[in-house]
Amino acid sequence: MLLKVREEIRRWGQQQSARYWMVEGLATGGVWVGAIAILALFAWLISDVCWQGARQVNWAFLVTAPQKSGLAGGIAPILVATAEVLLVCLAVALPLGLGTALLLTEFSRPHHPWHRLIGLSLDILAGVPSIVFGLFGNAFFSKTLGLGFSILSGGLTLACMVLPILIRSIQAGLLSVPLKYHQGAAALGLSRAASLWTLTLPVAIPGIVVGVLLGIGRAIAETAALIFTSGYVDRMPSSLLDSGRVLSVHIFDLAMNVPGGESRAYGTAFVLVILLILINGSVSWLAERFRQLKIQLL
Amino acid sequence: MSLTRNEQWLVRILQGLALISGMILILIVGFLLREAWPALRVLPPSRFWQDPGWHPLEQAFNLLPMVIGTLLVTCGAVCLAIPLGVLAAVFCQYYAPPWLAQGYRRLIELLAGIPSVVFGLWGLVVLVPLIARLHPPGPSLLAGIFVVALMILPTIALVTEASLANLPREYWRGAAALGLGTWATVQGICLPAIRSGLGTGVMLAAARALGETMAVLMVCGNVVQMPDSLFASVRTLTVNIALEMAYALDLHRSALFVTGLVLMAVVMGLVLLTEAWQGAIHR
What we know:
By secondary structure, chain A is mostly helical. Chain A has eleven helices and two strands, in the order H-H-E-E-H-H-H-H-H-H-H-H-H. Chain B has twelve helices and two strands; from the N terminus they run ααββαααααααααα.
């Protein structure tokens, strides 16, 4: 009798164990299949852009102006307009971002109500849809300030948009400066401003650069905020008050509004994706270098 | 701690810069309100869901089909992207050999930065014809859900992976000591332990899906109607702004700003909810 019960328990245990390992095996298989499916999907997307795009791109494509609304010619004025919009964006966002990040991390107590309020407003700003930035830019920069459809209003709108990500990354860079350094500086009797210039900023520079690159990555990918601020004109911009068409708007326009423009859109998309890969690569390279540097310093 | 005169100046300049940064949000809300005010003043709010349709030139401003469209695209995309994103993160963290995990992570990071127009272009040229072969016309709610899900998948995957990486090693060792397998540990211990991080990731992704404009514009067909199936054409609130802003005047323009204000309010709600939630968890 006892033997029989023991035998039954043993068999039950074996069944359970077999079931358990079957579930484990299925899950492992499922995770691998799913992961490979996701990989395949994205590989499809990227290879499609590269394959169809690379055929369009050559030196002439990069240095000539578009003709017949982009069906012929290249993207030179569009590259110039993109660079100018980015420059305006950074010229405004960088001082603002650096100042705000310095105040929040170096010159105020962590739980000060103002500090929390600014942090909250930045969190909300980070989630605001880009089309809403477009509405705001159109109403404020283009209409109220009278800048019209121009590279300047586009760049300013983008500056508002990348500010949160810029501030957060610069803050992360500043916070990574070891406490020892601050203590050492204080022990040497350095003033706060002096220790900021000679110590904190130099050590935090890689973090700041990563933030700037992330901001550029976000800005260069943006379309919706620019349609109603920097506009559609595909001529070479002669000043910052001229309207200029950026890469992403060019892709959108070719794909949606120009019949037969898809292949050219792919060409432009290829250029944009290559730029993004370069930016992304430098971010991870810098972040890695930064980590190693810090290990050496400590 | 006392500050010298120079430093007081420095602090004052920094305070000025920070004040400008903090003011941007107020400026945005203020200008949206100012531009939306003519519509809000003239039209009773009920007009936005009781008018006979969206015919701005004939003073009919029914936003309901577009609100529904936005909700369907957002919910569909989030529901599709959560399991896939979590799966990608779990794969990276627990199943893949280190070299593969590193490459996979790089790829996902890269994808998080791919512009929405590029996703839209791919959807327009590759996905829409495929769907058209399955069930015409092609540009549809389904295409929108699919493309937006692909776009927010990296966000969810990266946030989930960061939370998984931050779990204490003891959890894993404890599970190993109990003889648990990988999957049992993941679904019984790791995933429940990162609920809050996962919640944050989902909120971020939902905000991004809600505000997505260009990709949706390129693949959804943009007919203002209540979608009756996954293959029907829809127009979302964001797309409506992008399509009509170029020629909208007076009350029409103002109604578009009302839409912007609504989007802004929803995003604000999501962010505040996330903050409150995280606050509650920390306590």
